[in-house]
């Protein structure tokens, strides 16, 4: 039962253009969302997060948008750089769920073409 | 230089043998986690610990055991009862065990059981 879904396994973007990675979730109790970036043979590194009380959070080239009614979040990377090529995971959690558990999507592999 | 270390990076075992994966952190984090990643799937939580000498099962705890005798260490034992132990295992920690605290990941251990 995949509560967090990333329906695009891969994405290719030209350097300098915008990368948009999407994530959908099913549990309306989720109230905290994160994006992680993962290079091969390494653990994921935290990128950006957003609380459900916001609909946008920005950090440099990275912006996360949250649409609670659609249960959808997206990560925008502008401008995209070759070093952004990695697998991106979204994750969600709910304050009142037992276990403080994060649920992860299956990841989207982003390739930024120089 | 604070971080999370996992050793070894690659581990090979024969079927029927128990194996213990190491996870150490010097971030002074209270909470620690073990995840498993399989191809085409998101990270799935095996066990987590919010405080020394206490730990809780995640979604896929069957066939695994953990201990948390020290704040810095959270070893995972993959027992012979685990039906499909071959996977990439990730350890993570967070300042506290709440759902709004991002998790920091180690580099992972790839376990192959034949």
How do the strands and helices of this protein lay out in sequence?
The complex is a heterodimer of chains A (114) and B (114).
Chain A: E1 4-5, E2 10-14, E3 19-25, E4 32-38, E5 45-51, E6 56-59, E7 62-67, E8 72-77, E9 86-93, E10 102-104, E11 108-113
Parallel strand pairs in A: 2-11
Antiparallel strand pairs in A: 1-3, 3-8, 4-5, 4-9, 6-7, 7-8, 9-10, 9-11
Chain B: E1 4-7, E2 10-13, E3 19-25, E4 31-37, E5 44-51, E6 54-57, E7 64-66, E8 76-78, E9 87-94, E10 104-105, E11 109-113
Parallel strand pairs in B: 2-11
Antiparallel strand pairs in B: 1-3, 3-8, 4-5, 4-9, 5-6, 7-8, 9-10, 9-11
Distance between the termini of chain B: 36 Å
Pattern of helices and strands of chain B: EEEEEEEEEEE
SS class of chain A: mainly beta
Low-confidence stretches of chain A: none
Please report which band the strand proportion of chain A falls in: under 5%, 5-15%, 15-25%, 25-35%, 35-45% or over 45%: over 45%
Write the element-wise H/E pattern of chain A from the N-terminal end onward.
Answer: EEEEEEEEEEE
CA distance, first residue to last residue of chain A: 38 Å
Please provide a written account of the structure:
- The complex is a heterodimer of chains A (114) and B (114).
- With 114 residues, chain A is mostly beta strands.
- Chain A is built from no helices and eleven strands.
- Chain A has strands spanning 4-5, 10-14, 19-25, 32-38, 45-51, 56-59, 62-67, 72-77, 86-93, 102-104, 108-113.
- In chain A, the strands form two sheets. In chain A, strands 2, 4, 5, 9, 10 and 11 form a six-stranded mixed β-sheet that branches. Chain A has a five-stranded antiparallel β-sheet with strand order 1-3-8-7-6, with no helix packed on it.
- In chain A, a hairpin with a 6-residue loop joins strand 4 (32-38) and strand 5.
- Chain B has 114 residues and is mainly β.
- Helices cover 0% and strands 48% of the residues of chain B.
- In chain B, strands 2, 4, 5, 6, 9, 10 and 11 form a seven-stranded mixed β-sheet that branches. A four-stranded antiparallel β-sheet of chain B has the order 1-3-8-7, with no helix packed on it.
- Chain B is globular.
- The mean pLDDT of chain B is 91.
- Classes of the chains: A mainly beta (114), B mainly beta (114).
- Chain A binds chain B through residues 2, 4, 6, 9, 31-32, 34, 36, 41-46, 49, 51, 89, 91, 93-95, 97, 99-107, and chain B through 4, 6, 9, 31, 35, 40-45, 48, 50, 56, 58-59, 90-92, 97-100, 102-108.
